[in-house]
Amino acid sequence: MKFTQCFSDQLDHGYAVMRLQTQGRDFAVIASEENQPCYAYDLDNNYERITVWPDVGGTMTMVQLPGTLDFLATQRFYPGFNSATCRIVHAHFNGRDWDITEVASTPYIHRFDVIEHDGGFWYIGCSIANSKQFTDDWSDPGKVFVGNYDAERDELTDVRELDVRITKNHGYRRETATTSLITGEQGIFRLHYPEPGADAVPSNWKLEHVADEETSDVAVIDINKDGLPEYLAIQGFHGDHLRLYDSNFSTMDAAESGSPFGHAIEAYELFGQPFFLFGFRAGQQDLLKITERDGAMQFETIARRTGPSNVVVYEKNGVNYLLSANREINEVALYTVEE
User: Which residues fall within 8 angstroms of residue 302, CB to CB, at 6 or more apart?
Assistant: First the structure.
């Protein structure tokens, strides 16, 4: 595949990225992890930049509300991971830009999700820690919270914690229509959602411990087309090595070093080829495309010295694009992807 940069803008410490499309409108959204803006770029109007919010920032996660141009997002996840004042806000699209209202105070919530079901939404919140005396204090492990998001009242309800504590609870990934993956020092956990029609009480959620190796983030795709999922994991907290698991979380391959501060990780299929994307924020700060051959990972460099924090791939008008928050060079970057 050929990746060619077609657009660039500046944003200090860009972090969270999202494609926001419905109701005849289409935007690429990127938010800073510092006290800096969130921007939306109009994909139908020559990437016109709209300021979603001018400051506050500290955004780790953004989640679109289905069928709308509204989204929920974290703010104030700073400084570092000492984020006692973190909150979730609702960005309401008003036809021109977005109005921001607070949904809930959510201390230390690094990743969260809202899962549509039975006409409502479940809420999943993952805190990187439960409390901190200083940024690198990990003595009080993070929690996993479940409950509901009431869209009419615009609030979280019945939020309770599961019976698990995860140190450096960093990664979250929707896996299937009924499961998500959560990662931390204790490894990888699979969270099973309640059965249809069931309440969101903790006893209706099932947490399965599927891998023991300390994991920062994980992505999933059938990389070798055997009909089963494979998993790419960043080992260690913002670690410098990768592990490729099969569907049973047995190791297929491991790359032990050379990619310090691993962060951006996604999985896609384009032109009939499944692949992972992986970017790291220290050392060479490269963005890589990873495929598989005979059980081993194959690496191809997409961009050098960009230090990406998160990436997303989308298709528009028959063209595939890669949006990258190139955090370490304060760049919003868009690439076309050709076969």
Answer: 3, 277, 286, 287, 288, 289, 322, 335
If one counts the domains in the chain, the total is 1
Classified as helix, coil or strand, 58 is: coil
Cα–Cα distance for residue pair 98/90, rounded to 1 Å: 9
CATH number of the domain at 93, please: 2.130.10.10
Residue 256's pLDDT is 84
pLDDT at 304: 97
227 by Cβ neighbours in 10 Å (0-12 / 13-18 / 19+) ranks as exposed
> Domain limits at 173?
12-275
Contact between 278 and 240 (Cβ < 8 Å) = no
Q: Provide the 3-class DSSP secondary structure of residue 287.
A: strand
Say if 307 falls within a structural domain.
no
Q: Which tokens in the block code for residue 54?
A: 């001018």
Task: With respect to residue 329, please indicate whether it lies within any of the assigned structural domains.
Answer: no
Which token pair is 330?
């304060």
What pLDDT sits at residue 80? 80
Cβ neighbours around 216 below 10 Å, total: 21
Q: 253 - beta bridge partners?
A: 244
**The pLDDT of residue 94:** 98
Gap between the Cα atoms of 2 and 76, Å rounded: 37
Per-residue buried b or exposed e for 94-132, using 16+ beta carbons within 10 Å of the residue's own CB: eeeebeeeebbebbbbbbbbbbebeeebbbbbbbbbeeb
Q: Considering only CA atoms, which of 327, 291, 331, 325 is closest in space to residue 311?
A: 325
The pLDDT value recorded for residue 79 is 86
Residue entry with tokens 């994909």:
43
Question: Is 85 within a domain?
Answer: yes
Inside any domain, residue 87: yes
Q: What is the pLDDT of residue 81?
A: 87
For the full predicted model, state whether its pTM sits above 0.85: yes
Output the CA torsion 323→89→135→207 (10° steps): -80
In the chain (339 residues long), the average pLDDT of successive 10-residue segments reads: 98 98 97 98 98 97 98 94 95 98 98 95 98 95 98 98 98 98 98 94 97 98 98 97 98 94 98 98 97 97 98 98 98 98
Length of the chain: 339
